[in-house]
Structures are given as C-alpha cells and as structure tokens.
Amino acid sequence: MSTLKINCCRKFAKKWITLGCLITLSFSGTAQEIKKIKVKDLQAYIQESTHPLIVNFWATYCSPCIEEIPYFQNAVSKNKDKDIELLLVSLDLPGYFPEKIAAFAQDKAFKSPIIWLNETNADYFCPMIDKRWSGGIPASLFVNNKTHFRKFFERQLTEPQLEETIKEMLR
User: Fold this and answer.
1) Three-point CA angle 164, 112, 160, nearest 5°
2) Strands 35-37 and 114-117
3) Whole-angstrom distance, CA of residue 91 vs CA of residue 57
4) Pairing status of strand 139-144 against strand 149-153
5) Among candidates 123, 166, 119, 121, which has minimal Cα distance to 142?
6) Among 102, 133, 148, 153, which is least packed by CB within 10 angstroms?
7) Burial category of 102 from C-beta neighbours within 10 Å (exposed 0-12, middle 13-18, buried 19 and up)
C-alpha cells in the first residue's frame, strides 16, 4: 500500500475516532430526563416496590438537601449488590421543571433518577407519604416491602445515620 493511501486512511480513522469521542462526551454530559409524577402514582410505586427503596424529597434551594444527596448516592453505590433504589423527588416550583432541575442535577453530578412531584398542596401530598410529615425538607422514606420495613425522616441525615438506616432496612 502506498504511503499516500496509508496517511489518508490514518487521517480518516482519526477523524472518526475524534467524532466518536465528541458524540460520547456530548451524550454523557447531557442532563438526565426529569419526569413529573402525581403523588398517587408515587404512592403506588412505593407500595408496589419489590426491592429496598429510598425516596428522598429535596429542592434546589435547600442547602441541607444538597449536602446529603451525595451521602445517599455513595451509600446506594456501596450496596449495589443489594438492589437498593434511590429515587430523588424534587419539590421545586413548577417554573423549575424540567430545565432548571436537570441543569442543577447535572451541575451537582446527581446520578440517581429524579422525578418532579407535580403537586402544590403539601397538606394533601405530605400525609400520603407519611402521616407525620409537616412538609419540611429534606425528608426521606426508607421502604422494604418484603420485610415490612418503613421508616421516615423529616430532617437531614448524617452519613452514619443513613448507613445505619440502610442496614436496618436490609435486615
């Protein structure tokens, strides 16, 4: 094969490799899809869950929420063999759905699925999640329907508290 043909093939291959890398980076850098859900659908999902489930209620304006989410992601990752699902439920205002929530989540490197609760009346939706919930966030619900485990927190959790609750949920 002539030197000219080899150089041409190398340039062509290099362009395709570069294009492939750019496409991969553009997809990996895109914000995740944020779906909206009504509380009755969320409640049904929680009740029908066949694996350990953590539902974390948060908002982009809530500093304690933002501080604890990496703890949740790390703890779930450490227990990936236990099939724990972490679902992040945004309680942001309707004007934040979906673009601002997705951009915020991408900026903070949130990897867990995020849904936006399409409800505005906390007096209606809070008791459907837990009768004691006054509406404060962060709030987290731990559920393992197989063992009838259910525990609710209306406060920020520390990493050790989170890990201990996961251990309880898995017993």
Assistant:
1) 15
2) parallel
3) 7
4) antiparallel
5) 166
6) 148
7) buried
pLDDT in tens, 104-132: 999 999 999 999 999 999 999 999 999 99
Side chain identity at 157, as an amino acid letter?
Answer: L
Residue 113 has a CB neighbour count (10 Å cut-off) of 14
Q: How far is CA 114 from the centre of its chain?
A: 4
Look up residue 7 and give its amino acid: N
Q: How many residues does the chain have?
A: 171
Structure token pair of residue 90: 């945004």
SS3 string, the chain, reads CCHHHHHHHHHHHHHHHHHHHHHHHHHHCCCCCCEEECHHHHHHHHHHCCCCEEEEEECCCCHHHHHHHHHHHHHHHHCHHHCCEEEEEECCCHHHCCHHHHHHHHHCCCCCCEEEECCCCHHHHHHHHCCCCCCCCCEEEEEECCCCEEEEECCCCCHHHHHHHHHHHHC
pTM of the model as a whole: 0.82
Rounded alpha-carbon distances, angstroms, from residue 10 to 16, 18, 19, 84, 125: 10, 12, 14, 46, 60
